[in-house]
Protein backbone atom coordinates (compact mmCIF):
# COMPACT_ATOMS: atom_id res chain seq x y z
CA UNK A 1 0.00 0.00 0.00
CA UNK A 2 2.97 2.30 0.56
CA UNK A 3 1.06 3.64 3.56
CA UNK A 4 3.23 3.23 6.66
CA UNK A 5 1.59 3.75 10.04
CA UNK A 6 2.75 3.84 13.64
CA UNK A 7 0.52 1.95 16.07
CA UNK A 8 0.37 3.22 19.65
CA UNK A 9 -1.42 1.37 22.44
CA UNK A 10 -1.89 2.80 25.92
CA UNK A 11 -3.32 1.73 29.26
CA UNK A 12 -5.81 3.62 31.38
CA UNK A 13 -7.60 3.06 34.66
CA UNK A 14 -10.62 0.73 34.55
CA UNK A 15 -13.43 -0.16 36.96
CA UNK A 16 -13.75 2.06 40.01
CA UNK A 17 -10.14 3.16 39.48
CA UNK A 18 -11.32 5.06 36.40
CA UNK A 19 -15.05 5.69 36.80
CA UNK A 20 -15.96 5.96 40.49
CA UNK A 21 -18.23 8.91 41.28
CA UNK A 22 -20.20 10.19 44.27
CA UNK A 23 -20.30 13.62 45.97
CA UNK A 24 -16.81 13.35 47.47
CA UNK A 25 -15.23 12.43 44.15
CA UNK A 26 -17.28 15.00 42.26
CA UNK A 27 -16.35 17.84 44.62
CA UNK A 28 -12.68 16.89 44.26
CA UNK A 29 -12.95 16.85 40.46
CA UNK A 30 -12.04 13.17 40.25
CA UNK A 31 -14.80 11.83 38.02
CA UNK A 32 -14.24 10.23 34.61
CA UNK A 33 -10.58 9.51 35.33
CA UNK A 34 -10.61 6.84 32.63
CA UNK A 35 -11.31 9.49 30.00
CA UNK A 36 -8.78 11.90 31.48
CA UNK A 37 -6.15 9.15 31.34
CA UNK A 38 -6.90 8.65 27.66
CA UNK A 39 -6.59 12.35 26.93
CA UNK A 40 -3.28 12.48 28.76
CA UNK A 41 -2.03 9.60 26.61
CA UNK A 42 -3.21 11.40 23.48
CA UNK A 43 -1.40 14.53 24.63
CA UNK A 44 1.76 12.43 25.01
CA UNK A 45 1.33 11.25 21.43
CA UNK A 46 1.04 14.85 20.27
CA UNK A 47 4.23 15.77 22.11
CA UNK A 48 6.31 12.75 21.18
CA UNK A 49 5.11 10.86 18.12
CA UNK A 50 7.26 12.91 15.75
CA UNK A 51 10.33 11.46 17.49
CA UNK A 52 9.19 8.05 16.24
CA UNK A 53 8.62 9.29 12.70
CA UNK A 54 4.90 9.94 13.19
CA UNK A 55 2.75 12.92 12.29
CA UNK A 56 0.97 14.54 15.28
CA UNK A 57 -1.51 16.17 12.91
CA UNK A 58 -2.60 12.78 11.60
CA UNK A 59 -3.77 10.74 14.61
CA UNK A 60 -6.62 8.23 14.36
CA UNK A 61 -8.16 7.04 17.62
CA UNK A 62 -9.39 3.44 17.53
CA UNK A 63 -11.16 1.14 19.99
CA UNK A 64 -13.44 -1.87 20.25
CA UNK A 65 -16.43 -2.54 22.54
CA UNK A 66 -15.92 -0.56 25.77
CA UNK A 67 -12.90 1.02 24.10
CA UNK A 68 -15.12 2.20 21.27
CA UNK A 69 -17.61 3.51 23.83
CA UNK A 70 -14.90 5.57 25.51
CA UNK A 71 -13.84 6.90 22.11
CA UNK A 72 -17.45 7.97 21.67
CA UNK A 73 -17.13 10.12 24.78
CA UNK A 74 -13.84 11.54 23.50
CA UNK A 75 -15.73 12.67 20.40
CA UNK A 76 -18.21 14.43 22.71
CA UNK A 77 -15.66 15.74 25.22
CA UNK A 78 -16.14 19.36 26.24
CA UNK A 79 -19.13 19.55 23.90
CA UNK A 80 -17.06 18.71 20.83
CA UNK A 81 -14.20 21.11 21.55
CA UNK A 82 -11.23 20.44 19.30
CA UNK A 83 -8.09 20.18 21.43
CA UNK A 84 -6.12 18.80 18.50
CA UNK A 85 -5.65 15.39 20.13
CA UNK A 86 -6.91 13.26 17.24
CA UNK A 87 -8.22 13.75 13.74
CA UNK A 88 -10.30 10.65 12.91
CA UNK A 89 -11.92 7.86 14.91
CA UNK A 90 -12.72 4.16 14.53
CA UNK A 91 -15.40 2.60 16.72
CA UNK A 92 -15.77 -1.17 16.48
CA UNK A 93 -18.97 -2.25 18.24
CA UNK A 94 -19.41 0.98 20.16
CA UNK A 95 -19.42 4.73 19.67
CA UNK A 96 -20.76 8.11 20.75
CA UNK A 97 -24.37 6.97 21.20
CA UNK A 98 -24.57 3.84 23.31
CA UNK A 99 -26.21 2.29 26.35
CA UNK A 100 -23.51 3.58 28.67
CA UNK A 101 -26.14 5.21 30.84
CA UNK A 102 -25.44 7.78 33.51
CA UNK A 103 -26.27 7.24 37.18
CA UNK A 104 -28.35 9.79 39.06
CA UNK A 105 -27.02 11.34 42.27
CA UNK A 106 -28.64 8.82 44.62
CA UNK A 107 -27.34 5.90 42.55
CA UNK A 108 -23.84 7.38 42.52
CA UNK A 109 -23.97 7.83 46.28
CA UNK A 110 -25.13 4.23 46.71
CA UNK A 111 -22.25 2.98 44.57
CA UNK A 112 -19.79 5.11 46.52
CA UNK A 113 -21.12 3.84 49.87
CA UNK A 114 -20.77 0.26 48.65
CA UNK A 115 -17.12 0.90 47.79
CA UNK A 116 -16.53 2.43 51.23
CA UNK A 117 -18.02 -0.64 52.90
CA UNK A 118 -15.89 -3.07 50.89
CA UNK A 119 -12.68 -1.10 51.54
CA UNK A 120 -13.40 -0.55 55.27
CA UNK A 121 -13.59 3.20 54.73
CA UNK A 122 -17.24 3.68 55.69
CA UNK A 123 -16.43 5.17 59.09
CA UNK A 124 -13.42 7.20 58.00
CA UNK A 125 -13.47 10.94 58.70
CA UNK A 126 -11.88 11.58 55.31
CA UNK A 127 -13.24 8.91 52.97
CA UNK A 128 -11.16 10.08 50.02
CA UNK A 129 -7.91 9.88 51.99
CA UNK A 130 -8.93 6.44 53.23
CA UNK A 131 -9.59 5.18 49.70
CA UNK A 132 -6.22 6.48 48.56
CA UNK A 133 -4.56 4.32 51.22
CA UNK A 134 -6.78 1.27 50.68
CA UNK A 135 -5.07 -1.89 49.38
CA UNK A 136 -5.37 -2.34 45.65
CA UNK A 137 -6.90 -5.79 46.19
CA UNK A 138 -9.83 -4.36 48.14
CA UNK A 139 -10.40 -1.77 45.43
CA UNK A 140 -10.30 -4.50 42.78
CA UNK A 141 -12.86 -6.44 44.81
CA UNK A 142 -15.07 -3.35 44.92
CA UNK A 143 -14.78 -3.05 41.13
CA UNK A 144 -16.51 -6.41 40.83
CA UNK A 145 -19.45 -5.10 42.85
CA UNK A 146 -19.89 -1.67 41.25
CA UNK A 147 -20.53 -1.29 37.54
CA UNK A 148 -18.47 1.35 35.70
CA UNK A 149 -20.39 4.46 34.65
CA UNK A 150 -19.31 7.82 33.35
CA UNK A 151 -20.62 10.97 35.01
CA UNK A 152 -22.01 14.21 33.60
CA UNK A 153 -19.58 16.61 35.24
CA UNK A 154 -20.43 19.80 33.35
CA UNK A 155 -16.94 19.93 31.88
CA UNK A 156 -15.42 16.89 30.19
CA UNK A 157 -18.93 15.44 29.82
CA UNK A 158 -21.11 18.55 29.81
CA UNK A 159 -24.40 16.77 29.10
CA UNK A 160 -25.97 13.46 28.15
CA UNK A 161 -24.53 12.04 24.94
CA UNK A 162 -27.96 11.95 23.28
CA UNK A 163 -28.42 15.71 23.78
CA UNK A 164 -24.87 16.50 22.70
CA UNK A 165 -25.37 14.58 19.47
CA UNK A 166 -28.80 16.08 18.92
CA UNK A 167 -27.31 19.55 19.29
CA UNK A 168 -24.36 18.80 17.02
CA UNK A 169 -21.86 19.12 19.88
CA UNK A 170 -19.31 16.59 18.73
CA UNK A 171 -15.81 16.69 17.28
CA UNK A 172 -16.15 17.01 13.50
CA UNK A 173 -13.70 14.33 12.39
CA UNK A 174 -14.21 11.38 10.00
CA UNK A 175 -15.70 8.33 11.67
CA UNK A 176 -15.52 4.64 10.80
CA UNK A 177 -18.05 2.72 12.89
CA UNK A 178 -19.64 -0.69 12.63
CA UNK A 179 -20.99 -3.80 14.26
CA UNK A 180 -20.95 -7.57 13.84
CA UNK A 181 -24.06 -9.39 12.66
CA UNK A 182 -24.59 -11.44 15.82
CA UNK A 183 -23.42 -8.98 18.47
CA UNK A 184 -26.21 -10.06 20.79
CA UNK A 185 -25.39 -13.75 21.03
CA UNK A 186 -22.31 -13.31 23.21
CA UNK A 187 -24.11 -11.00 25.64
CA UNK A 188 -27.17 -13.24 25.78
CA UNK A 189 -25.25 -16.46 26.36
CA UNK A 190 -23.22 -14.89 29.14
CA UNK A 191 -26.33 -14.61 31.29
CA UNK A 192 -28.74 -17.09 29.72
CA UNK A 193 -30.98 -18.23 32.58
CA UNK A 194 -33.31 -20.38 30.51
CA UNK A 195 -34.90 -20.85 27.09
CA UNK A 196 -37.03 -18.20 25.40
CA UNK A 197 -40.29 -20.10 25.02
CA UNK A 198 -43.01 -17.46 25.39
CA UNK A 199 -43.46 -13.78 24.65
CA UNK A 200 -43.34 -13.22 28.39
CA UNK A 201 -39.80 -14.64 28.48
CA UNK A 202 -38.76 -11.99 25.96
CA UNK A 203 -40.57 -9.20 27.84
CA UNK A 204 -38.92 -10.21 31.12
CA UNK A 205 -35.51 -10.23 29.43
CA UNK A 206 -36.06 -6.79 27.89
CA UNK A 207 -37.22 -5.21 31.13
CA UNK A 208 -34.27 -6.73 32.99
CA UNK A 209 -31.88 -5.34 30.38
CA UNK A 210 -33.34 -1.84 30.36
CA UNK A 211 -33.57 -1.51 34.13
CA UNK A 212 -35.48 1.44 35.53
CA UNK A 213 -36.60 2.79 32.16
CA UNK A 214 -40.27 2.36 31.26
CA UNK A 215 -41.16 0.79 27.93
CA UNK A 216 -44.71 1.50 26.67
CA UNK A 217 -46.78 -1.60 25.93
CA UNK A 218 -47.15 -0.44 22.33
CA UNK A 219 -43.37 -0.43 21.88
CA UNK A 220 -43.00 -3.83 23.51
CA UNK A 221 -45.64 -5.30 21.18
CA UNK A 222 -43.84 -3.81 18.21
CA UNK A 223 -40.54 -5.31 19.33
CA UNK A 224 -42.15 -8.71 19.82
CA UNK A 225 -43.52 -8.65 16.30
CA UNK A 226 -40.71 -7.00 14.36
CA UNK A 227 -37.80 -8.88 15.88
CA UNK A 228 -39.52 -12.24 15.52
CA UNK A 229 -40.19 -11.50 11.86
CA UNK A 230 -36.56 -10.45 11.43
CA UNK A 231 -35.36 -13.64 13.12
CA UNK A 232 -37.47 -15.82 10.84
CA UNK A 233 -36.57 -14.01 7.62
CA UNK A 234 -33.46 -14.06 5.46
CA UNK A 235 -33.09 -10.29 5.47
CA UNK A 236 -29.64 -8.67 5.13
CA UNK A 237 -29.73 -7.66 8.80
CA UNK A 238 -31.08 -10.96 10.12
CA UNK A 239 -29.47 -13.85 11.97
CA UNK A 240 -27.17 -15.15 9.25
CA UNK A 241 -25.91 -18.58 10.29
CA UNK A 242 -27.59 -18.42 13.72
CA UNK A 243 -30.87 -20.30 14.03
CA UNK A 244 -33.99 -18.58 15.33
CA UNK A 245 -34.69 -21.74 17.36
CA UNK A 246 -31.48 -23.73 17.94
CA UNK A 247 -33.23 -26.25 20.19
CA UNK A 248 -34.92 -26.72 23.57
CA UNK A 249 -31.96 -25.30 25.50
CA UNK A 250 -32.47 -21.94 23.75
CA UNK A 251 -36.15 -21.88 22.79
CA UNK A 252 -38.05 -20.56 19.75
CA UNK A 253 -37.56 -16.96 20.86
CA UNK A 254 -33.76 -17.14 21.09
CA UNK A 255 -33.07 -15.52 17.73
CA UNK A 256 -35.45 -12.67 18.45
CA UNK A 257 -33.78 -11.97 21.79
CA UNK A 258 -30.29 -11.93 20.27
CA UNK A 259 -31.33 -9.46 17.58
CA UNK A 260 -32.98 -7.15 20.10
CA UNK A 261 -30.08 -7.07 22.58
CA UNK A 262 -27.60 -6.54 19.74
CA UNK A 263 -29.57 -3.54 18.53
CA UNK A 264 -30.13 -2.24 22.06
CA UNK A 265 -26.47 -2.40 23.00
CA UNK A 266 -24.77 -1.49 19.75
CA UNK A 267 -26.74 -1.55 16.50
CA UNK A 268 -29.06 1.39 17.14
CA UNK A 269 -26.19 3.57 18.33
CA UNK A 270 -24.16 2.76 15.24
CA UNK A 271 -27.03 3.82 12.96
CA UNK A 272 -27.66 7.03 14.88
CA UNK A 273 -24.00 8.04 14.85
CA UNK A 274 -23.84 7.68 11.06
CA UNK A 275 -27.04 9.71 10.73
CA UNK A 276 -25.71 12.53 12.94
CA UNK A 277 -22.39 12.67 11.07
CA UNK A 278 -24.25 12.76 7.74
CA UNK A 279 -26.61 15.49 8.98
CA UNK A 280 -23.63 17.72 9.74
CA UNK A 281 -21.81 16.79 6.51
CA UNK A 282 -18.94 15.04 8.26
CA UNK A 283 -17.57 11.93 6.51
CA UNK A 284 -18.56 8.66 8.15
CA UNK A 285 -18.39 5.03 7.10
CA UNK A 286 -20.25 2.00 8.36
CA UNK A 287 -19.33 -1.67 8.24
CA UNK A 288 -21.28 -4.87 8.95
CA UNK A 289 -19.05 -7.83 9.80
CA UNK A 290 -20.63 -11.15 8.92
CA UNK A 291 -18.03 -13.88 9.19
CA UNK A 292 -18.68 -16.66 11.69
CA UNK A 293 -15.34 -17.83 13.13
CA UNK A 294 -14.52 -21.52 12.91
CA UNK A 295 -13.91 -21.59 16.67
CA UNK A 296 -17.53 -20.82 17.61
CA UNK A 297 -20.85 -22.55 17.02
CA UNK A 298 -22.26 -20.97 13.87
CA UNK A 299 -25.89 -21.88 14.69
CA UNK A 300 -25.96 -20.39 18.21
CA UNK A 301 -23.15 -17.78 18.29
CA UNK A 302 -22.25 -16.84 14.70
CA UNK A 303 -20.43 -13.61 13.86
CA UNK A 304 -20.55 -12.31 17.40
CA UNK A 305 -18.90 -9.58 19.46
CA UNK A 306 -15.15 -8.98 18.96
CA UNK A 307 -14.72 -11.61 16.26
CA UNK A 308 -13.55 -9.02 13.73
CA UNK A 309 -10.38 -8.33 15.72
CA UNK A 310 -8.01 -10.92 14.18
CA UNK A 311 -9.11 -9.70 10.74
CA UNK A 312 -8.59 -6.02 11.54
CA UNK A 313 -5.14 -6.56 13.04
CA UNK A 314 -3.98 -8.85 10.25
CA UNK A 315 -3.57 -11.65 12.77
CA UNK A 316 -3.61 -14.51 10.28
CA UNK A 317 -1.79 -16.81 12.74
CA UNK A 318 -4.43 -16.20 15.46
CA UNK A 319 -1.67 -15.27 17.89
CA UNK A 320 -3.10 -14.86 21.39
CA UNK A 321 -6.36 -16.68 20.62
CA UNK A 322 -7.10 -19.86 22.56
CA UNK A 323 -9.02 -21.27 19.59
CA UNK A 324 -8.14 -20.66 15.96
CA UNK A 325 -10.94 -18.56 14.37
CA UNK A 326 -9.85 -19.62 10.89
CA UNK A 327 -11.15 -22.87 9.31
CA UNK A 328 -8.90 -25.89 8.90
CA UNK A 329 -10.26 -26.55 5.40
CA UNK A 330 -7.51 -25.20 3.15
CA UNK A 331 -9.74 -23.56 0.53
CA UNK A 332 -12.08 -21.95 3.05
CA UNK A 333 -9.19 -20.84 5.24
CA UNK A 334 -7.68 -19.10 2.23
CA UNK A 335 -10.88 -17.08 1.81
CA UNK A 336 -10.78 -16.05 5.46
CA UNK A 337 -7.14 -15.03 5.11
CA UNK A 338 -8.03 -13.02 2.03
CA UNK A 339 -10.49 -11.13 4.21
CA UNK A 340 -7.75 -10.57 6.79
CA UNK A 341 -5.79 -8.84 4.05
CA UNK A 342 -8.75 -6.76 2.87
CA UNK A 343 -9.89 -5.60 6.31
CA UNK A 344 -6.47 -4.76 7.68
CA UNK A 345 -5.73 -2.74 4.54
CA UNK A 346 -9.08 -0.93 4.84
CA UNK A 347 -8.34 0.10 8.41
CA UNK A 348 -4.89 1.33 7.36
CA UNK A 349 -6.49 3.19 4.47
CA UNK A 350 -8.83 4.97 6.87
CA UNK A 351 -6.02 5.86 9.27
CA UNK A 352 -3.91 7.28 6.46
CA UNK A 353 -6.51 8.71 4.06
CA UNK A 354 -9.62 9.09 6.26
CA UNK A 355 -11.47 6.72 3.94
CA UNK A 356 -11.34 2.90 4.00
CA UNK A 357 -11.83 2.75 0.26
CA UNK A 358 -8.24 3.30 -0.88
CA UNK A 359 -7.06 -0.08 0.34
CA UNK A 360 -6.10 -1.03 -3.23
CA UNK A 361 -4.30 2.22 -3.88
CA UNK A 362 -5.21 5.81 -4.64
CA UNK A 363 -6.60 4.94 -8.07
CA UNK A 364 -9.70 3.36 -6.51
CA UNK A 365 -12.76 5.59 -6.44
CA UNK A 366 -14.39 6.39 -3.11
CA UNK A 367 -17.69 4.88 -4.16
CA UNK A 368 -20.92 4.36 -2.24
CA UNK A 369 -20.26 0.67 -1.68
CA UNK A 370 -16.55 0.32 -1.92
CA UNK A 371 -16.04 -3.32 -1.14
CA UNK A 372 -18.07 -6.48 -0.91
CA UNK A 373 -16.26 -9.60 0.14
CA UNK A 374 -17.66 -13.10 0.29
CA UNK A 375 -16.16 -15.75 2.58
CA UNK A 376 -18.82 -18.35 1.91
CA UNK A 377 -21.53 -17.88 2.90
CA UNK A 378 -20.96 -14.52 4.56
CA UNK A 379 -20.50 -10.94 3.42
CA UNK A 380 -18.53 -7.89 4.37
CA UNK A 381 -19.11 -4.44 2.96
CA UNK A 382 -18.52 -0.75 3.52
CA UNK A 383 -21.21 1.85 3.03
CA UNK A 384 -20.85 5.56 3.16
Automatic annotation (TrEMBL):
Q: Does the keyword Acetylation apply?
A: no
User: InterPro entries in the record, alphabetically?
Assistant: AB_hydrolase_fold, AChE-related_enzymes, CarbesteraseB, Carboxylesterase_B_AS
Q: Which Gene3D superfamilies match?
A: alpha/beta hydrolase
Instruction: List each copy of the Carboxylesterase type B domain by range.
Output: 4-358
What EC number(s) is this enzyme filed under?
Answer: 3.1.1.-
Q: What does the UniProt keyword field contain? A: Hydrolase
Q: Which residues form a coiled coil?
A: none
Answer whether the UniProt record assigns the keyword Hydrolase to this protein: yes
A single Gene Ontology MF term assigned here is: carboxylic ester hydrolase activity
- EC category name: hydrolase
Family assignment from sequence similarity: Belongs to the type-B carboxylesterase/lipase family.
What name is this protein filed under? Carboxylic ester hydrolase
Species for this entry: Fusarium oligoseptatum
Amino acid sequence: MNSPIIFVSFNYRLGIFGTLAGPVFEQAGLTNLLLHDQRQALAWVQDNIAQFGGDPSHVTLMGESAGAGSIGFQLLAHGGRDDGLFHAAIGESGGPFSVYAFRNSSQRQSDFDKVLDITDCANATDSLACLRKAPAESLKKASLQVQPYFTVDGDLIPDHNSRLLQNGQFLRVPLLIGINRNEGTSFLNTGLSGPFVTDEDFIKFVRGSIGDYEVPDSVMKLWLKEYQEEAESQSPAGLGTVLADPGPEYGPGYGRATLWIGDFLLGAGRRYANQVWAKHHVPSYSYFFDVAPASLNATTIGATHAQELPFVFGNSNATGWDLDPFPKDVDLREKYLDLVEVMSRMWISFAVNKTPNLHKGHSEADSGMASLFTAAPTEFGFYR
